[in-house]
């Protein structure tokens, strides 16, 4: 039995007053154990929805079909009680905003050891010792002081590191990180990047990284998944995707970066209530053919990665 996470025909929609939002469409993929897998794409591409579906952290109006298999167990079929035995202990979640993740009225230390004591039934003394050790692992020079501090007393980068310490206190097998650099300045982004590079070494955990930060994904990911309008357009080794992107959308994302050509993608992402026929990207694609407007291409293997585009049919 391996530790991979398998997604099989996963489709996610949301019922709203305006209509059904088709957030994720028939995704088949494997998150490989021992790797950092990055999911990239514009806002609304479905990367956060797909990632959080692994732990069923979606809104009550969501509808998920398909299967998410881990160790021969379909996570989508578990009861809430069964899933709570997995959340935090087996698969941990690092939310995108440390300011919102921490309770401002509780010390950092108390929040770090909360899950540890809940799952492992440890004494308060054992919890404190473990919590201080966690902060030492994440390079806090005064772990005892940080343990007794409140969130507002830490810098943005320190809060992110403390959040990682809290999320990995039970040595989870998988870590799901949602937009860890969102809203951070360049200096703190660099610091957080180092945190995630260290995270894999410290915990030996496999990581699913949801990010709009392509430089972060390029720096630390082994595999990258490119999502657009809830559909996988390209996936494969990070080095190949960033050095030689195949899909026009991937090329556009990379060229839009400030340290590249700073060329914005033309047009806007489609409405997830009224998706275009054919390739989801064809209304914005300068390479489109007639068939692109009529029929959606299948994912096919090209030069060591998978791509969904009629250019390679």
UniProtKB/TrEMBL annotation:
It is a peripheral membrane protein. Gene3D superfamilies: P-loop containing nucleotide triphosphate hydrolases (3.40.50.300). GO terms for biological process: peptide transport. Residues 5-254 form the ABC transporter domain. It is found in: Cell membrane. GO terms for molecular function: ABC-type nickel transporter activity; ATP binding; ATP hydrolysis activity. Its main location: membrane. It catalyses: Ni(2+)(out) + ATP + H2O = Ni(2+)(in) + ADP + phosphate + H(+). Its EC number is 7.2.2.11. The keyword Ribosomal protein does not apply. One of its GO terms (cellular component) is plasma membrane. It comes from the Bacteria. Keywords: ATP-binding, Cell membrane, Hydrolase, Ion transport, Membrane, Nickel, Nickel transport, Nucleotide-binding, Translocase, Transport. Belongs to the ABC transporter superfamily. The complex is composed of two ATP-binding proteins (NikD and NikE), two transmembrane proteins (NikB and NikC) and a solute-binding protein (NikA). This is Nickel import system ATP-binding protein NikD. The lineage of its organism: Bacteria, Bacillati, Bacillota, Negativicutes, Selenomonadales.
């Amino acid at each position: 039995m391996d530790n991979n996470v398998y997604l099989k025909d996963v489709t996610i929609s949301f019922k709203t007053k305006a209509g059904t939002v088709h957030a994720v469409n028939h995704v088949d993929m494997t998150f490989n154990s021992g790797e950092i897998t990055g999911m990239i794409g514009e806002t609304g591409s479905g990367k956060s929805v797909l990632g959080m579906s692994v732990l069923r952290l979606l809104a009550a109006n969501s509808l998920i079909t398909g299967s998410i298999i881990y160790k021969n167990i379909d996570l989508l079929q578990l009861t809430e009680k069964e899933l709570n035995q997995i959340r935090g202990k087996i698969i941990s979640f690092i939310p995108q905003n440390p300011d919102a993740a921490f309770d401002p009225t509780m010390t950092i230390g108390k929040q770090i050891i909360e899950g540890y004591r809940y799952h492992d039934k440890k004494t308060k003394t054992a919890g404190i010792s473990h919590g201080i050790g966690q902060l030492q692992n994440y390079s806090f020079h005064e772990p005892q002081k940080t343990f007794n501090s409140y969130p507002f007393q830490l810098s943005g980068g320190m809060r992110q590191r403390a959040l990682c310490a809290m999320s990995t206190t039970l040595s989870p097998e998988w870590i799901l990180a949602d937009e860890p650099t969102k809203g951070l300045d360049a200096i703190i982004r660099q610091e957080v990047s180092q945190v995630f590079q260290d995270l894999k070494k410290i915990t030996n955990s496999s990581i699913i990284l949801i990010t709009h930060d392509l430089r972060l994904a390029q720096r630390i990911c082994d595999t990258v998944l490119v999502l657009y309008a809830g559909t996988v357009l390209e996936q494969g080794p990070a080095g190949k995707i960033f050095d030689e992107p195949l899909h026009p959308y991937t090329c556009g994302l990379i060229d839009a970066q400030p340290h590249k050509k700073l060329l914005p993608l033309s047009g806007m992402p489609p409405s997830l209530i009224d998706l275009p026929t054919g390739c989801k990207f064809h209304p914005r694609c300068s390479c489109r053919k007639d068939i692109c407007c009529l029929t959606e291409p299948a994912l096919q293997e090209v030069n060591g990665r998978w791509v969904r585009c009629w250019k390679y049919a």
